[in-house]
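In response to a reviewer's request, we include the raw inputs and outputs for one of the modeled complexes. The two entities were modeled together in a single run.
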Amino acid sequence: MPNLPAPVTPPDRILMGPGPSDIAPRVLAAMAAPTVGHLDPYFLQVMNETQQMLRQVFRTENQLTMSVSGTGSAGMEACVVNLVEPGDRVVVCINGVFGGRMADVAARCGAEVTTIERPFGEVFTPEEVADVCKRVSPKVLGIVHAETSTGALQPLEDISRIVHDAGALLLVDCVTSLGGCPIEIDKWEIDAAYSGTQKCLSCPPGLAPVTFSERAVAAIDERTTKVASWYLDITMVRNYWSDSSRAYHHTAPINMNYGLHEALRIVLEEGLDARHARHRRNHLALRAGLEAMGVEYAVAEEQRLPMLNAVRIPEGVDDKAVRSQLLSDYGIEIGGGLGPLAGKTWRIGLMGEASTPRNVLLFLAALDACLKAQGHETSPGAGVAAANANYQIV
Amino acid sequence: MPNLPAPVTPPDRILMGPGPSDIAPRVLAAMAAPTVGHLDPYFLQVMNETQQMLRQVFRTENQLTMSVSGTGSAGMEACVVNLVEPGDRVVVCINGVFGGRMADVAARCGAEVTTIERPFGEVFTPEEVADVCKRVSPKVLGIVHAETSTGALQPLEDISRIVHDAGALLLVDCVTSLGGCPIEIDKWEIDAAYSGTQKCLSCPPGLAPVTFSERAVAAIDERTTKVASWYLDITMVRNYWSDSSRAYHHTAPINMNYGLHEALRIVLEEGLDARHARHRRNHLALRAGLEAMGVEYAVAEEQRLPMLNAVRIPEGVDDKAVRSQLLSDYGIEIGGGLGPLAGKTWRIGLMGEASTPRNVLLFLAALDACLKAQGHETSPGAGVAAANANYQIV
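The model returned the following structure tokens for the whole complex.
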């Protein structure tokens, strides 16, 4: 017998970082269902059902709604490469890592990219968007709904009107928001949106739900050049996701799609409104606890994400030491800061299955211990007490 | 409770098509292990071990060996977009669907593509490759080792020498060959190769193992333009797969990587030589059975793939009716022809876990029944008898 590594036996984690989030046992069980062929009538039924459920979760009637066979960033690239041809003017609003990524992706497929920027943790005003639309007259304006890198929520309704008045298409990153707070594709007239499975949908990473409006589909149909990526070319992929054609494009990740199917069933069983309320309730309890412990948010109150709490690391506290202790002593994963926020913030996720009172209380109790280990002044138990009190109020 | 589809409960299939192939229960169980974070020390260990095992399966020392977060076609695109800059001369050898796809991918990232062609089911001679290398002097020559669309195996050793003598890089598609027949990355001096998980590795689709030689890495390092795809940009992805950096790029498909880890353990437990011999033994038994039934191969004997048997559909037999009956009455999936072979050939896979005497005998017995239902003259039991006899001989 050759010298082989041991079988996979992951440690028991509570995933309270920026994603992946905790996965429901039902979803993990679905991932392990026997693989069938990618053209098997049964798998085509799974695809149809998944499309229907994705439409409900995106709150859209868009025909072109499906999962891209890659993680959230592949969803971003799929939206950009399909909407953009070389020389097209694209505006990207950057207030975090993922806006910056979108600008990079757009430039790589030959767009003339104009960026507007806000400091990490802030959001854009409708006026700023109106200004750049007037100045650039873009084909597409891309913006991030929930910036996973900063914890800020971007209001979209006014911006959507402005973008459409300027004759542009609105592309929205809802990787972190979908399933955790309201995102209304049809009501807000979003033309293209992508998400990931591993945030508030609580499915393992590996697929990217996307949806395109009729306007977006028309823009794709009017292309005069081939889509820069073969793998992500929606003009071909959509034939596989279409009842009338089912033309082979690439072999779909069968078991990942099983997992997404079950994750969507769980989301819709709970109901979107109830799910959003749950995320908000646990966010408010966590906030009460953190504030009682003197830990401050890095984002203004009215723009905070309910599913991702970006807080300032208290003065004198070692970022990595605390995250290591949370992981080793309590099996709790939280995220560090990204970009200019590295070493300055923690990102505490309460996403999907992980958004529970149990996790809120445990995290606050564990943070107490970790801050104490750092010699940081706390009033022991104050966080837990405040969170518990907050649950009583609401 | 909203009106939801039923949970995923796939039918019991035997996957004898062009992939996905049957998955070992151990691999399905690994897919359902609890998800951890993509920067969790445990997951980094899984990545390290996976890299080590991939090197053994590819038979290479290449440092840059990893899994791309997409299916086999994403692996193709990852190799092409990283090696090719706009204006680069690329030769693609087309003798099936996947060669054609590679040419399409190369053209989309701005290559000056020259193609040479052979009819579907045939392979290229060293002379043909020498001619085109002399004529074009390409930066990269791409060729398919095992054409899944036709069932033909391309010898590579002579071609490799010719390509290198011409100063070009050799890019090889080994999606279907890896784990099923010899593919020697280092010995044959292949510069870049990609595979898929769902063929002879018998892991569900969703990842693409890739490997790059030092020459290929040097070519990537000398690029003057950004890689056309952000998602597949190896210059960034490799920092995540590197012990010294682990820089976040995109969130890896954690559970898919668990599955690949276990699938590679199974491959190496069996041993590559033994695994190749098993594929060959079952191929020869199937061949004996098919020949006894008067079913002819579509590929010349010396070029047949052991893991994918492309045979001519007997005159007067309805392609789809037979494949439907195999699926509905026996739960057996086989593949139809692709491209010009659609309606003319069947593709019978004996890949990975599915390459067993049990499947060979069952398939021949079931085919007997399906051909009889088509009114096709057979001598009942002749196929099974010949296959059994063949197992006795070998």
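As requested, we also summarize the result in words. The first helix of chain A runs from residue 25 to 31. Residues 36 and 209 of chain A are 21 Å apart (CA to CA).
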